[in-house]
Amino acid sequence: MKLCRRDIFRIIMFFVAIVFLAISLVHFLNQQKFGLMRVTVRDGFSDEPIEGAIVVIPETNQQYVTDKEGKTELIQVPLIRDKHHSKLLKQDYGLTTVLVYCDGYVPYALFFTHVENGTMRNGPNVWLFPEPGDPFVIIEAPKGDWCNELIEMYRPE
Which of 39, 56, 140, 142 could bridge to 99 as Cys pair (CB 3.0-4.6 Å)? Predict the structure, then answer.
């Protein structure tokens, strides 16, 4: 089978496109930003650390088990921006969800947990309460500086 110039050109262009896509993918993955957090889980009444609590980060589909000090290992969390609020005023941090489960305690859900690029957050701190009861649901407020800037930006004159 003899290849003409046009066929050779197409083959070369195909491989150039593959290399370009591979380089673009590597560049994109290197642009992904992450923060670190170490969750601490304690009993809501005694303030004692809870060993064996399961901490789930739904955005990564990962789970972690607390040690005897009630702490998880360091958790790497991707920075996911809040698209709704970033339309109003760009946020310099990402948000994630923290779910905590432990036998004998009601489940705990913390939404909009702050994660900053390249930093390690010692927390959040979670207090679990014994069953029976409804799941404990908390929403972490936006950062104070961001709130103040947004308030000032939309303040009527």
Answer: 56
